[in-house]
Amino acid sequence: MVKICCLGAGYVGGPTMAVIALKCPAIEVVVVDISTTRISAWNSDQLPIYEPGLDDVVKQCRGRNLFFSTDIEKHVSEADIIFVSVNTPTKTRGLGAGKAADLTYWESAARMIADVSKSDKIVVEKSTVPVKTAEAIEKILTHNNNKGINFQILSNPEFLAEGTAIQDLFKPDRVLIGGRETPEGCKAVELLKSVYANWVPEDQIITTNLWSAELSKLAANAFLAQRISSVNAISALCEATGADVAEVAYSVGKDSRIGPKFLNASVGFGGSCFQKDILNLIYICECNGLPEVADYWKQVIKINDYQKSRFVNRLVSSMFNTVAGKKIAVLGFAFKKDTGDTRETPAIDVCKGLLGDKAKISIYDPQVTEDQIQRDLAMNKFDWDHPIHLQPMSPTAVKEASVEWDAYEATKGAHGVCILTEWDEFKKLDYEKIYENMQKPAFIFDGRNVVDPEKLRKIGFIVYSIGKPL
Length: 470
Ligand code: NAD
Ligand code: UGA
Known about the structure:
UDP-glucose 6-dehydrogenase activity; alpha/beta; 2 domains; Rossmann fold; globular; six-stranded parallel sheet; binds uridine-5'-diphosphate-glucuronic acid; 6-PGluconate_DH-like_C_sf; EC 1.1.1.22; UDP-Glc/GDP-Man_DH_C_sf; 18 helices; binds nicotinamide-adenine-dinucleotide
């Protein structure tokens, strides 16, 4: 029986390993983590992450061939294949602060693997890492190896999106495996390929060299984010000219060379990866003497920052240039629907912008806890362009944010509503009831274009949508 161990029971490690266990009953999969609370949650009825369909998959395999444990060394030493799916955030201090990936967790995982291994291992990079990381990992593993162990490093980046993780894992557009072009490297690639071949058609499993696989992941995220910044840049021009961004995106996306997906204008993209991975790409370009290429990708993040501040400025200016003392209801705090994840959510920047203008905000999100929201708002803002000057939020301003457990409660008595996550339930709210209970004039700022502006205008609202005529 092939044994798999995965280091890191997070948004990637948990769902990915659960699906491997489901699709490969002959393989034993153990997911380990340094966080005991995370592992206890994976072993409980309340999984640590919200992801549609995940509960079902875990229930089917947990205790059969899927296990969650904190006994890291035991399971690493017993495994044939070790996936490393630890976090790789942006460095906030020292060389490359604000851009480079912080590989502290990765390096300590690699050192631990070298220490405890007694047999040959295939080490798989599942985390998103800078191109050439495999070379560094190889150095750590081989220089700490006096037991004659053969370590093969593979790059197998993950392309799942949160909120659709299970669907994406069941039917991936492609699985990418990069390895060394040596006989041992090719053997390792074939073994990992045979794991995925249990449910992924072979022609969708791409094999490449290590560096192509590592770089393809950063490039894919940069291309996806670039589409959003492109449509968001056009949304600003739509607002200035009377064009409708939905009509423009539809017309542009009909060109089969461009395609219709990922062209929804929004308050800005969020999530733990787009910004981090583009910054990582920018840093690699700079280190390789390619400042023009670095500047090109920087612009994708700058437009995203601009879109968020543009949203706040438009809100404040349309509410007679002041929101001081006014109640603003915030519907949605997660970075997208169907997840409780708030990492880099545009809602943080928008809420901080409103609090900075002395608004009182009342937040409702169906999946994000009050604790999480308060932690996010109290956190120092990390400015990637000027990492030395962290911008603290004043504790008194944060006190002006409250969290409600119902959209109607949050909007009661409000002067304005902003929709910051595209939760389906926001499309179905009783907006007549909401209007009744709001101050007049009642404003709606739809940061996700989920409501029909014409219908709401008929009720009496003043509606601002992204990239749509007033
Ligand atoms: P996460 O923070 O949710 O999970 C990482 C986990 O690793 C944490 O639980 C942490 O405690 C654990 N960990 C850290 N060091 C460890 C160690 N030495 N041993 C064992 N466990 C350790 O992160 P995530 O969202 O799952 O992302 C993981 C990686 O996958 C990142 O590189 C990210 O860029 C990439 N990725 C994420 C997504 C996504 O949708 N979140 C998608 C594709 C790729
Ligand atoms: C993204 C990629 O889609 C995944 O392929 C990748 O594996 C992952 O990053 C990663 O490496 O972490 P994720 O961030 O989970 O996945 O979610 P997306 O669906 O890509 O959405 C990201 C952000 O862009 C969200 O805030 C979303 O609301 C926003 N978005 C998305 C738009 O504003 N407009 C769109 O048209 C699409």
